[in-house]
């Protein structure tokens, strides 16, 4: 599969990297032939399973209705259609609606880590399928998918943008095209892990931009931002602001997993 990447033309791989990548792929392939693939969450042999073993698959917490119409945060009971969570009313985001396939719990974290840092790009089609299902309402109305970009330096060290890979998988299912180069991360930001909500917002402020020559791709269009995990929402909120500033008509968000606080009640 051709993995879409967010590229920077100046970020040419060094000779060492250029050889390291196929070598790593070759070694991985050799190991795959010798050993059965393992479940990224519990390390049990996968057998015929795709992505996770049957036990972990059963433990994965898919987000189903009822949830906040705006943020997609699941409710503990059904308050009726269209009701919003306290978060959506207290601090409405720049994007219109957010949806997620699963809760970000231990199993989802193991899956995302294997995908992002463990060379498990083969998980992208499965994760993308779950996302397409969770976001079907949004993809039906979207003109294009926009992956949250990595800064070119991080892209270089990680070799692929996980959000772009997920956007490619979602696109294959729903048929909505992906704008890979439209939104740019113009500033390298510290990892959001370990930061408070206000710190996260400050960390990513002004980090994204649609270059002037790309504005025609977003002007007047309905866009769907794609990311792997939604924690505080600061990153996708900043991305949505950049797209709206560039003239987008509407921005929604679709992620693989979102952090959900233990108890949520509608107001
Ligand atoms: Zn497992």
Task: Give the SSE layout.
Elements: H1 15-34, H2 54-59, H3 86-90, E1 98-103, H4 106-117, H5 124-134, H6 136-141, E2 144-147, H7 152-158, H8 162-174, E3 184-185, H9 197-204, E4 208-209, H10 215-218, E5 222-230, H11 234-245, E6 250-258
Helix pairs in contact: 5-8
The chain binds zinc ion.
Parts with pLDDT < 50 across at least 5 consecutive residues: 1-17
Number of helices: 11
Strand tally: 6
Derived from helix and strand composition plus strand pairing, the structural class reads alpha/beta
Q: Mind summarizing the main beta sheet?
A: 4 strands, parallel
Shape designation: globular
SSE arrangement, N to C? HHHEHHHEHHEHEHEHE
Trace the largest sheet across and list its strands.
1-6-5-2
Round the Cα radius of gyration to an integer and report it.
19 Å
Q: What percentage of residues falls in helices of 4 or more residues?
A: 25-40%
Mean pLDDT comes to: 85
- Beta-strand percentage? 5-15%
Named once each, the bound ligands are: zinc ion
Separation of the first and last Cα atoms: 46 Å
């Amino acid at each position: 599969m051709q993995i879409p990447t967010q590229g920077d033309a100046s970020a040419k791989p060094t000779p060492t990297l250029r050889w390291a990548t196929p070598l790593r792929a070759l070694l991985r392939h050799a190991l795959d032939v010798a050993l059965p693939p393992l479940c990224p969450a519990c390390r049990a042999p996968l057998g015929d399973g795709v992505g996770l073993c049957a036990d972990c698959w059963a433990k994965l917490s898919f987000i189903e209705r009822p949830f906040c119409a705006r943020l997609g945060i699941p409710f503990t009971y059904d308050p009726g259609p269209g009701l919003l969570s306290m978060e959506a009313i207290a601090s409405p985001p720049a994007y219109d609606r957010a949806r997620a396939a699963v809760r970000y719990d231990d199993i989802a974290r193991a899956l995302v880590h294997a995908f992002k840092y463990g060379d498990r790009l083969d998980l992208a089609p499965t994760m993308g399928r779950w996302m397409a299902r969770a976001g079907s309402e949004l993809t039906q109305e979207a003109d294009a998918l926009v992956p949250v970009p990595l800064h070119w330096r991080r892209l270089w060290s990680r070799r692929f943008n996980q959000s772009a890979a997920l956007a490619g998988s979602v696109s294959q299912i729903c048929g909505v095209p992906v704008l890979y180069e439209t939104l740019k991360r113009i500033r390298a930001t510290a990892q959001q892990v370990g930061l408070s909500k206000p710190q996260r917002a400050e960390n990513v402020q002004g980090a994204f931009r649609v270059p002037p020559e790309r504005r025609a791709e977003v002007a007047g269009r309905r866009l769907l931002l794609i990311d792997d995990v939604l924690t505080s929402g600061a990153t996708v909120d900043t991305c949505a602001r950049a797209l709206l500033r560039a003239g987008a008509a509407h921005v929604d968000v679709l992620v693989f997993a979102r952090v959900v606080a233990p108890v949520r009640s509608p107001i």
